[in-house]
Amino acid sequence: MTGVVPAVDRSSETNRTWVCEAVRIIEADANRSADTHLIPFPLPPEWHVELYLKDESTHPTGSLKHRLARSLFLYALCNGWIVEGTPVIEASSGSTAVSEAYFARMLGLPFIAVMPRTTSAEKVELIEHQGGRCHFVDEPSQLYKESHRLAVELDGHFMDQFTHAERATDWRGNNNIAESIFSQMALEPHPEPEWVVVGAGTGGTSATIGRYVRYRQLRTRLAVVDPEHSVFFTAWRDDDPELTSCHGSRIEGIGRPRVEPSFIGEVIDRMIKVPDACSLAAIRAVAPVLGRRVGGSTGTNLWGAFQLVAQMRAAGRPGSIVTLLCDDGDRYAHTYFSDEWLAAQGLDLTAPCAVVESFLATGVWA
């Protein structure tokens, strides 16, 4: 179900003209935005393993979700689901909503983000800054039902990133994130990465990368990291796509209480479960190394990537690994980088911080 589009004549010249102009506006925005950078993470050269961060925080809306939002809007426009004046509704914990609000405002469309009440104040402010409105629910399990309800009530379109993420992006190329990574790696010492490490929220990014490496006959393997309270890891391990949980993820942007339709487990070579304390220890430990703060999902990525670096070193296997810098850590100043918030959540970072610091010093994973 995608919501009810207002009763208009889609075949009318006026409607077709508006849709053509909307697609042009979105494509022009992409044309103005240079590709995101691929940043080497400073590991000792004698390790003979290179680690790279694809810095998705440099998109106009500051996160990896900018790519997804662009694809979802184009998909909805070209499917005839969005026409002039259609309210757009999305179930989102933050970054997707920020990006979708940006594109909705660009097209002059109302936008409502349905999100958990626990979403960071910084992300709420970013959504509202882009002209969006936030609609809160108390339980993560209510997100989908409430989004559908609003779409029907407002004669709008529920964008439904969790269903459409893997099909809205052309996984064979066309400037998707996989094509961008491998193009930027072309002149590096090990241009074909041993691993690409990503998290799963919708599952769209992992599906795109996993399909792309097969399509291009590459030997790169895909590792997906999964935070605490998310069901993706257990469902993948046990081949149980119906698995659900009553908990939401504390690591915004990744982790889900159900296996989303866009999650394609068959393209994943390895999954790594990452406790939340480990994700947050990683972002605090690497902040001085990178000279900047990064968000919690990047910490989850790095926790997994560091383990793979250590395994390659232990096996005497040179090569490269690519992971994602998903968004900027300044969005989480009052949560992940707040000692008071950590204490309220009952999170102690002492032991996992020691693991990361030991790895950065020795290349050995404790």
Explain the overall architecture:
The protein has 366 residues and is α/β, with parallel strands linked by helices. The chain folds into two domains: 32-59 and 172-362, Rossmann fold, CATH 3.40.50; 64-165, Rossmann fold (3-Layer(aba) Sandwich), CATH 3.40.50.1100. Helices cover 43% and strands 14% of the residues. The strands form two sheets. Strands 1-2-10-7-8-9 form a six-stranded mixed β-sheet, sandwiched between helices. It has a four-stranded parallel β-sheet with strand order 5-4-3-6, sandwiched between helices. Helix 4 (121-129) links the parallel strand 4 and strand 5 (133-137). The termini are far apart. The mean pLDDT is 93.
Number of helices: 13
* H and E order: HEEHEHEHEHEHHEHEHEHHEHH
Strand % is: 5-15%
Please, what is the average pLDDT? 93
Supply Rg.
20 Å
List the helices and strands and how they pair.
Blueprint: H1 13-32, E1 37-41, E2 49-55, H2 65-78, E3 88-91, H3 95-107, E4 111-116, H4 121-129, E5 133-137, H5 143-153, E6 157-158, H6 161-168, H7 177-184, E7 195-199, H8 204-215, E8 221-227, H9 232-238, E9 270-274, H10 276-290, H11 296-314, E10 319-325, H12 339-345, H13 350-362
Parallel strand pairs: 2-10, 3-4, 3-6, 4-5, 7-8, 7-10, 8-9
Antiparallel strand pairs: 1-2
Helix pairs in contact: 1-2, 2-3, 2-6, 3-4, 6-8, 10-11, 10-13
What are the defining features of this structure?
366 residues; alpha/beta; Rossmann fold; 2 domains; four-stranded parallel sheet; 13 helices; 14% strand
